[in-house]
Amino acid sequence: MRKKAYLGIDIGSISTKGVVIDGENRFLAESYLWTEGDPTGASKRVLQQLKEQFDGEAYHIVASGTTGSARRLVGAMLGAQVVKNEITAHAVGTTALHPDVRTILEIGGQDSKIICVENGVAVDYAMNTLCAAGTGAFLSSQAHRLGVEVEQFGEIALSARKAAPVAARCTVFAESDLVHKLQVGYPKEEIIAGLCKAVAGNYLNNVAKGKKIVAPVVFQGGVSKNAGVVKMFEEELHMPVLVDEKGHLMGAFGIAILARESHKESEFSFDVADMEFRTREITCGKCANHCEIICVYREKELIDAWGNRCDRGAVR
Amino acid sequence: MGEIRTIGIPRGLMAYRSGVQWKAFFEGLGFSCVVSQKSSRETLERGMERAVDETCLPFKLYLGHIQELLGACDVVFVPRMGGYQAKEKLCTRYESLPDLVNNIFRDERPRLLTVSYDWNDRTDEEKVYMELGETLGKTRGEARKAYASARRRMEQWRRDKERRQKALLEREGIRVLAAGHPYVLHDPYMGGEISRLLARQGATVLFTDYVDREKALKRSYHFSRVMPWLINRELTGAVMLLKERVDGIVLLSAYPCGPDALVNDMLVRKVKEVPVLSLTLDAQSGAAGMETRIESFIDIIRYQKAGGYGKN
Predict the structure, then answer these.
(1) What is the ipTM score, two decimals?
(2) Is the CATH number 3.40.50.11900 carried by domain B171-306?
(3) What CA–CA distances, in Å, run from B264 to A34, A128, A203, B87?
């Protein structure tokens, strides 16, 4: 008899992550790739990669879950049992692997968050607001300006003797400050170290403002792969900061666990990766609010719709 | 000046706190009132066309309400409110309201009905209403009678809200206190959206302005002796009174609000008994992006109550 497996997909603004786990939280398949502004397309590619690694003879997927900013869209596409916010998904995933964690720092492509944990459950959280300063997108744009790959940032930062002071409160100011520092002759590695320090400092002063950071601290999200930022966090916090090898997959892992714990089961087929999904935006004209309603179609059939403030705008 | 028969009341700002009393007073004096429609996206779009960028979202909506009333009534009621006590003032927006409206709509030259009071005037509510009655050409006796009856009406309305909210406090399940200026909490385009999202997550929503105003005001002096704003006093006092009886508090502010920026930060630091979520609404995104924040917040409360993940 085939054993049960669970699928989790985390669709972020920059990257899309997917995992398949078994009943004991073991990873059976995993995938990580760029969203490239196309959440359904990225999810299909993730499913294809997962399918290649997945042993369909030994396991079958009985539940799925989605999280991340496109969770609703991809949730409709997969017929997911659980569609949930990334805060809960990250908390569930991280506490499953690190039961003693007290603080989760997360810096992704366009957002950053902090989750405070007590006795294995989240007790408080904060997210960045409109501004994306100090996130992955910020580092990418600065890397571009410096002519360096963002993946090399960590290594270069660690080679610097000291960090140049860089104003990273705002991307606009950071850019002009950066140009100025280069022109007056700061070495590139010190500027990169400065950027890493600014990201950590900006995070602690904004997102984590007023939150008590207690060890053990786990750092995840794309930016956690940057050893320079990790080092700056450790220096600022005076405590070790743990980066899990699977840290980038925590949201997908957490939502897969939640799908399993929902105890709602129905056979999942990788065939959805071959189906056509289309979305259409309509403006409801039934009152002065003019709600924008998103309709999702699978092979021309309407499967879900949302965005209406009241029942008058209900499409289905 | 032509004869006044109908008075327009913009459904924004302090109308959400005192509108019942205004309307009862004018009607008691024999006028008929036109209240603008509930806020919608159209209201905001109209208001944004007239407002400078930097002003706050509730004021932009207020301008939309004024615009709607132009031509629909003989005068629009736009009071100038400074507050009655030194430590119970109102924000500068209220202290300049008729001037702002007159200037912004200078081409339309709307006829405004106004009255002005300040904390250093040594005046009180009754005197202000008497003056308003006089402006409308009524005798002191008529104004006094209409004021007394309007006040009773307001009182009744408030007690009714308070009583209903007390009953909600006994409800099972997750209870969340929404804290904010009344015109943010109850405007369908601002707090209305947030209440809807909270209710959809299964939470019972309570409001800081449905708590006994006098008790809350008094309690606020324990929170801060120096805080100068009336509405922030009422809402912090209500938070202090209810914090042990709810599962979470949502601080709701509309961008940019000076008093809220200061006071909500204080609240986040001082209230440690229950989870606190601070939300800021702005004209660009409205309630978008709020869903994730509210869902996460309710999850935290729910899993805390259940004692861990995988237990509910």
Answers:
(1) 0.87
(2) yes
(3) 38, 17, 20, 17
